[in-house]
Amino acid sequence: MAASEPFTPGTPPLFTVNESVAESLTGHRPVLLNLLDGFVDGGQVIKTISETVLEHCEHEPLVVFDHDQVHDYRSRRPLITFDTDRFTAAEDISIVLHKVRDGHGEEFLLLAGPEPDARWELMLSGLQHLVERFDVRLTVSAHGVPMAVPHTRPITMTVHGTDPELIGDQRAWIDRVEIPASLSALLEFRLGEQDRAAHGFAVHVPHYIAQSRFPSAAVAAMESIALVSGLALPIDELRPAMATTLTEIENEAQQSEEVQRVVAELERQYDAFMERDADLPSADEIGAEFERFLRNRGSDDDPQGF
């Protein structure tokens, strides 16, 4: 039996809970993996992780949100297929909180779908309510950010969260910087105000391939999520695609002396920083990478992104 839960009297409910699925979570204190697809996701990290988990793990819908209340159709129009003389298919927009079973049989929650365009405060209230209702012990997010790093070096990431013990001695890659907010970032902030554990990984994706899918970044994110949460995620399912993509990028780079020079300079900067001989990226540099990424969004057809 499903139950709807409105948050403002006289307004339609924001979401519907599958109560029979909810009952099975009683006493579990699950991890919540927040993979709302925000406006910045270099290398399609969010999409790759979400698709991989839902494809290879047993799951069922726990909460279905009324996306019609929060989606701006004129800003992000769903795709529709026209074939010869008729429309044959339409893209389905949905925001769903799934109950998922990992490789060891542990149940966790996965929030997937497009980031809401409107009514963020209502959405945040709803998500905080669900975190409390299901007694979520840890909320984890991940996404990709374009950075001046080479694809030939180990993946790095900016680690953030509400619990300093979870962050530990992770290397800091940037100093204080103001960036456009995402709903996921605001959720982490609000959960921190409630003394709830929330953690996130901003995976550094080479800026020259940030528009394309970069499985190496998704693998790095999933490994970090597994380490902090204890979940057994289907990481190995992505390793063949990771190897293939790296080979494609290398082959493309070998055809351009200019690209080789760029990669070589990025390698020099990366190695110097890892030895703590280089300065942290400035706020202006980080902001410029964000702006560049946003200007060039939407070019998913080029597998290499050069």
UniProtKB/TrEMBL annotation:
Phylogenetic lineage? Bacteria, Bacillati, Actinomycetota, Actinomycetes, Propionibacteriales
Keywords noted in UniProt = Coiled coil
The record's section on Pfam families has: PAC2
Give the matching InterPro entries: Proteasome_assmbl_chaperone_2, PSMG2_sf, Rv2714-like
**Which residue ranges run through the membrane?**
none
Q: What is this protein called?
A: PAC2 family protein
- Chain segments annotated as coiled-coil in the UniProt record: 249-276
